[in-house]
Amino acid sequence: MKLIETIKNIWKIEELKNRVIMTFSLLLVYRFGAQVVLPGIDSTQLGGFSSNFEGGGIGSILNAFTGGAFANASVFALGIMPYISASIVVQLMGIAIPYLQKLQKEGESGRRKINQITRWLTIGICLIQAPSYLLSLETLGVPRSAYMMQDNMTLFVVISTIILVTGCVFAMWLGEKITDKGIGNGISLLIMVGIIATLPQAFLQELNTQWTDGGGAFVVLIEVVIWLVIILACVMLVMATRRIPVQYARRTATGGYEKNAFGARQYIPLKLNASGVMPIIFAQAIMFVPAALGSLEQGWAKEVAALFADIFGFWYNLVFALLIIVFTYFYTAITVPTNKMADDLKRNGGFIPGIRPGTETSEYLDRIMSQITLPGSIFLALVAIFPAVVSLMGVTQAWALFYGGTSLLIMVGVAIDTMQQINSYLLNRHYDGLIKSGKNRKQQVA
Predict the structure, then answer these.
(1) Full-prediction pTM beyond 0.70?
(2) Any transmembrane segments, and where (predicted)?
């Protein structure tokens, strides 16, 4: 009943209702595009190609991120990953290139220029990935007879490259429109919807396997309970905060501050995982690089690709975990402006008890962030590699991907972020939120 009442409240707020409708509409467009096969390919002959992306392997993650579009040879086969890769490159370059550093300090105008640079870089990455994908289709299981232009493959590759690049740019546009006109982070929502689209099939495959091999419903029930416990752990990781007490001096009637007179104590909530799901997405994008090396002719490149081909293997998960820890520190450093927080506190007459305002406060906040980021990043890395652990216990690889890892962390993180945005709209209009319980807040205020 509480959920139904909350949905009714969402529908009462015109702006929120329009944003929710816009979000679902654009997500449906993205899911529809994921089923549209590239012109020139017979979709009835893609069975062998699709089977190559079931279970483990880099291809299965790529397919999950694109919601099956990769295995469908769809116009959205590249998904949104080229944009994620471009974002990583731009942010890393921002550390070393003065021009990008200058843009980062210019506020909204600088952010727009950085976004434009990211878009152009996305197109450049697509122009590399699209031909590579098309030229590997036959190797991965698309029969020669499936190509309607098999006598002119060059023309097919050129036309399909244009379509794939356009599809990626359109997906990028959809994500940005969801962020601007809808609810939640559009890019993250596109990834989450793609992942959720593969979940029912993975669960049914696990159910069928356990039923056939004698594990039965009891084993499946235990697996579901463990899965729910891991989801709870992910929620705790996303929501956990360290509260820093702050004292504010009491203002006088003239707008100044009374000496030795203090108002109510407040808190600065520093999140244990301030970077959200971005370290997972960044690390996963980097882990696609070794697989790409397999297309090179050099022997060392093929050895590296073979070493990291198994996403449940030791070396893959070791490097993946280390990258997550590194990116967690990196992304936290660029998204949590401790200097600005200290300046805002000082400007508003606030201070942390026992810490001098200004530089000392900034250093204190930075030290606290470093201390809480370490356990947060390690826990994030452990959850990310947990699918490799459950796969050793007999869980099918397709279903194991949802026991933590990139898939589950993105689903939980994006879902919580979206719910918090909806919650803010509801609470601002004096309605019950999705997270906090209670009746219509108008009655409480009255």
Answers:
(1) yes
(2) 20-41, 75-97, 117-135, 155-174, 186-204, 216-241, 272-293, 313-331, 372-394, 400-419
